[in-house]
Fold each of these.
Amino acid sequence: MRAAVLNAIGDDELELRDDVTTVDPGPREVRIRVRASGICQSDLSAMNGTLPALAPGVVGHEGAGEVLEVGSAVDRLAAGDHVTLSFVPPCGSCPSCVRGEPHLCAVHAIAAFTTPRFRVGATPAFGYAGLGTFADEVVLPACGAVKIDRDVPFETAALIACGVLTGVGAVLNTAKVPPGSTVVVIGCGGVGISVIQGARIAGASVIVAVDPVEAKHANARRFGATHVTTPDGLDEIKEQVTGFEGFDYAFDVVGHAPTIRSAWDCVRRGGSVVIVGAGRCDDMVEFNAQELFLHDKRILGSFYGSSQVHRDTGRMLKLWRAGLLDLDGMISRRVGFTEINNALGVLRQGSTDVIRQVVTLK
């Protein structure tokens, strides 16, 4: 079968091969025919070493497809079911799952991440984030496959699997933004647009979108931003809409020390800073002890939008069906398997007119 293989961390391009096979599914695993896979900034971060990844491996982690085969102990899925794929398959019984934080479950995720899921010729290969959706097929724990209705387009469902759950979930699950709040979102890529939509759904009265690329501002407005600015204009808008007090909530969707610090600085005393972007482990953010005490602000990490994937996938689809969550409008470009490297290059260059690219695998 076809798969896009990262031969070494640091490679700029993936090797597109047609001699890749998956491992056989175990008793509690399923084999999925991948039909669509979003191209996410985290895929680039895996390739360049910002996020942990193992090579050789198949890249891709935001996918949807059709069940081909189920293991002997799988009873809630059957061949032919349509599913989205989660890179955090919740086991349901570990301490994180039991206390209602299945997005922090590491039982299956670590095993899937660190165990070869493919063979490239005769060489064992890993799947990025335990998946590897830039391939015709993947094998994963059954609890990481979320059944969806058959009328949901695969490319629409794929967006939910990572970017939408991460962005909308950061607003509704992590921050629990109440109606009438003032919100600022730093970074207007695919996940940033999802955060903006989440803030709109939550009923925020002010949604300020911040991005240095002015060409992205029109899209931010289209999806719900009430104000747009470059970083240089943020202080002026903060004065205009909050009277110098600061915003109730700031979402950093970039994951760099300067943007995290900017999010902190533009939130009012008692406000919340939500870290959505995935940064480098050596990118250090500085706060002094006095400001942490005096300002009474909350710093909230938001991994995977604090989502309960089996619950929240259905919620996102209900919002989509109600016309409250625009998923189809987020798809800026559809590409085939042979165009994956081109699409990664477009993402790397920061194209101004692309929100999300989707690989369609037939």
Amino acid sequence: MPIARGYAATDASKPLTPFTFERRDPNEDDVVIDIKFAGICHSDIHTVRNEWKNAVYPIVPGHEIAGIVRAVGSKVTKFKVGDRVGVGCFVDSCVGCAERDLDREQYMPGLVGTYNEFEADGKTRTQGGYSDSIVVKEGYVMSIPDNLPLDASAPLLCAGITLYSPLRHWNAGPGKKVAIVGMGGLGHMGVKLGAAMGADITVLSQTLSKKEDGLKLGAKEYYATNDAETFTKLAGTFDLIICTVSAEIDWNAYLRLLKVDGALVVVGIPENAIPVHAFSLVPGRKSISGSMIGSIKETQEMLDFCGEHNIVSEIEKINIQQVNEAYERVLKSDVRYRFVIDIASLAE
């Protein structure tokens, strides 16, 4: 079996450390990828610290993967050696289904995560992108447009699609007023993508400290949510609000910002239940919904859209030896706006 090198968590309370492990042998429909860059997602931190109570150690995190094809199986038709490719949050889907659901597979039973999961055989652990190589079925590999830098494209595989999917589903575009709650790794992608779709984008952030960035990236308005006047001024303004934060907020106050038939969509996962009063919903026929990443089909659509509009993530590139420090900085919101690991640093 192929040997891979990376960084892994071996316990919820310990830092990530160097780790050597076996990848599965490639099958005829597999693509072997040399990983060049891996983004750091907040869910990596939740998982390795067992905050979601589902960790099985050792864990090599990372589901924002950008790399180059090293080899392909005999039945692979979409890719060739040397292609620029990405791998996102899952490496198999609809396991056990009669037919793969190409449009909604991220919501179907049998989704296999890129790490901390079992592959379809029920025995082989999946391990993620904080490593030098990965073996993935052809149908779960995506092409990265040639005009996009590979390092800044890596976060598109999670942060990008997490915002693209609800923006598309709720028809963000010309004539639509959209608010993005939070100006972080997810939120800044919502600003870029929503603006490129033609929507009127407003950022709602705790303070105005990132206002200059928000306006530069495409927002038309930027308001501080620690100012009570914001909620008075903006009442009944938005067709769509996408909440990217996982902190506790006054959900009823945000629902009052929606127009009739408006939707508040949750993509950040708060620790506690969301308390919403019926009167925040019923009088305006408003809704509160959730959205999770996108299908492989939609993720490729997003990458192509980003290629057409020259959209990538704003990144800070680090060596893999800095990963534990980067985790602490993510928790302090001390990054603008996504850490990306240069996997070449594994050799140092």
